[in-house]
Amino acid sequence: MLEAPQPSLSSAWDCVSFSIFQRRVYRTTTHVPRELGQIMDSETFEKSRLYQLDKSTFSFWSGLYSEVEGTMILLSGGIPFLWNLSGRISGRAGFGPEYEIVQSLVFLLLATLFSAVTGLPWSLYNTFVIEEKHGFNQQTLGFFFKDAIKKFIVTQCILLPVTSLLLYIIKIGGDYFFIYAWLFTLVVSLVLVTIYADYIAPLFDKFIPLPEGELKQQIETMAKSIDFPLTKVYVVEGSKRSSHSNAYFYGFFKNKRIVLFDTLLEDYSALNKEPAEEDGENEETKSKPKNKKQGCKNEEVLAVLGHELGHWKLGHTVKNIIISQMNSFLCFFLFAVLIGRKELFAAFGFYDTQPTLIGLMIIFQFIFSPYNEVLSFCLTVLSRRFEFQADAFAKELGKAKDLYSALIKLNKDNLGFPVSDWIFSMWHYSHPPLLERLQALKDAKQE
Fold first, then answer.
1. pTM of the model
2. In this structure, what are the phi and psi dihedrals at residue 290, rounded to the nearest 5 degrees?
3. Active-site residue set
4. 342: buried, middle or exposed (CB in 10 Å: 19+, 13-18, 0-12)?
């Protein structure tokens, strides 16, 4: 996906510590640097600075809360308490201690419910205070809660059956259960990737085929020129949720689809329409007047897609899948080595039993934590390399000028702050800083 630099996945404490450096940049960089004078006006620069400063403050406190909550749960014996509670609930339903998988599913349901409830105030504040303040939120409170409930239900419908099968495979798999468990998770991940945009995403957002016209014809022509097996192009109504924009492709083999957020398309974004142009007021979406156009022109949309298709043509998607599965196999192998260590369970308050689900939680979430940090950093470095390569691919398609202007527009529309602390950027940003990408494209334009 083509977007402004965003922090990659990392621990909450990592966000709390490294964000100090970036917050200093937000506070002290109050004027547009000379090198940005031609691409960003002072008003937009100040808006983006304040937006990112608010996000950084929110990230600090939410990350700190997450660390405190997790520490309190561990120190107070929250995990064994919840496990025992799950046993009592499943016991009342007629499932004794021998039904470990049933107890595990009850535990998982209660744990995810607890996480959803404790995370709700933070999500509400982020959506209706920060995003609202800076003009991105398009949701009503009713839509937010309806969406949250739907997400929780869909998550449980996927998580509980998959977990029960995984636990069953581990139980009956013998000495080589880790191979079967890895193969199972591989199949599940491929199935989810395949069905997500067709069956899961439409439960939350409306997907419509891109209307016939010049843009669709140009997209099909570009896809054909690089042998991309495009079958459909969709526009998703992301504007009912947020004014942030994006684009992506999905599908395997000869069945590829492209999805464009309506907020990316200047000619299709609902946020650019006057109230009279709407088919009717959507009760779940706020009507907000805008005094400026959002999104990209057709040529710029094609440049963005040229970048996205570059990821496919250069094999980035396949490489990421291979790396992910190699890591998954390694984790399951190490899990098989460590699962018999009773002292691991005892350290978390499980002295008499060693439930498989608890073992997965202890080893994957806690024991592997340092390894996951190193892996996250390596994947961030790789992701930035892939982004430069995808930009270069779009450049080879003759889209350097349009991609240059598209990156500036997207950064402006999403209020991305173009100045970053090098330590924070190196550790967190999965996409290169805007200036670095523009410089590479500018060299191509001058050629």
1. 0.84
2. -125, 140
3. 308, 391
4. exposed
